[in-house]
Amino acid sequence: MAGEDARRVALVTGATSGIGRATAERLHADGWSVVATGQDDRRADEIAAVLRDRGHVARVDLAASDAATRLVAATVERFGRLDALVNNAGVHTLATAVETDDATWDRVLGINLRAAFQLAREAIPVMARGGGGTIVNVASEAGLVAVPGQVAYNVSKAGMVMLTRSLAIDHADQGIRAVSVCPGTTETPLVREAIDAAPDPAAHARTLAASRPAKRLGRVEEIAAAIAFTVGGEVGFLTGSELVIDGGYTAR
Ligand SMILES: NC(=O)c1ccc[n+]([C@@H]2O[C@H](COP(=O)([O-])OP(=O)(O)OC[C@H]3O[C@@H](n4cnc5c(N)ncnc54)[C@H](O)[C@@H]3O)[C@@H](O)[C@H]2O)c1
Whose Cα sits closest to atom 1 in ligand 1? Predict the structure, then answer.
């Protein structure tokens, strides 16, 4: 356990599954106290059992307009401070513009982008009072290049990248750093869902792996390690930028 991390507090959204869960577990192992959000009761209990006395699990729907206020308040009530916000919760949809209705657009942008903005808005004053902090927006390679057939998702992730940059420049003098972590396709339940929703799931899975120079999908532990590095503070000059972990997908 890193002693210096022992008093530090992270809020990780969508921490009952995939990248978020791996991140909550990694930060806990590094000595952080972790507020984890989730929606599924069974999986919430599982992560609570991992985090134990240095953890708090909040069941929230980030589509609700008061979710961010309640989450940050619950974090302060439980641990008294907030040093890192990891905006990880997200939803994906496979649809072109002509296939996307308003409700889908609003849902994807609402959960992926608006909730990240609202949480940052609530978190920054608390972080600033504690001497500063780090916001990690888990964006995507799809926020940097247009991945076919997922317009709402692509736009939500591109929005997160610009949210990151804006937060970084507006709040640097309050000791706030903001970084986008942009995973390439990574083996998680969200990706499994997308594969299963494709007309030919097996072919889609092969295409996903073959589409990147590394010829494989990312692993949740790799993304969690990048997030832990970012919030760890060893590189305080790292802010306003994107950490891209995509097996070379966007390099071409
Ligand atoms: N897996 C990938 O290939 C990949 C690639 C790039 C970016 N990402 C991003 O990484 C993040 C995590 O993805 P994952 O693959 O681990 O997904 P996942 O489906 O395993 O987890 C998503 C999490 O978001 C939470 N969530 C969804 N809607 C919510 C809502 N309304 N309120 C509260 N929580 C909600 C879920 O409960 C879950 O814990 C997402 O933002 C995703 O867009 C994933």
Answer: 186
Has 249 been annotated as catalytic?
Answer: no
pLDDT at 208: 87
pLDDT tens-digit map of 196-224? 988 999 998 899 899 899 999 999 999 99
From the candidates 153, 157, 182, 208, which is the catalytic residue?
153
User: What DSSP line would sit under 79-96, residue for residue?
Assistant: HS---EEEE-------B-
Position 37 confidence tier, pLDDT thresholds 50, 70, 90: very high
Burial class from Cβ neighbours inside 10 Å (0-12, 13-18, 19+) for residue 172 reads middle
pTM for this entry: 0.95
Instruction: Choose which residue among 66, 161, 190, 221 to substitute to test ligand 1 binding: the one with the highest number of ligand atoms within 8 A of its C-beta.
Output: 190
Q: Which atom of ligand 1 is nearest to the CA of 38?
A: 37
User: What is the rounded distance in angstroms from the CA atom of residue 115 to the CA atom of residue 121?
Assistant: 10
For the chain, domain boundaries: 3-185+219-245
- Determine the distance separating the centroid of ligand 1 and the alpha carbon of 200, expressed in angstroms: 23
How do residues 109-132 score in pLDDT, each as one tens digit? 999 999 999 999 999 999 999 999
Q: Which residues line ligand 1 (CB under 6 A)?
A: 14, 16-20, 37-39, 60-63, 88-92, 111, 138, 140, 183, 185-186, 188-191
How far, in Å, is the centroid of ligand 1 from the Cα of 1? 27
Contact between 133 and 85 under an 8 Å Cβ cutoff? The reply is yes
- Separation of CA 89 and ligand 1 centre (Å): 4
CA separation for the pair 31, 169 (Å, rounded): 29
The CATH number of domain 3-185+219-245 is 3.40.50.2300: no
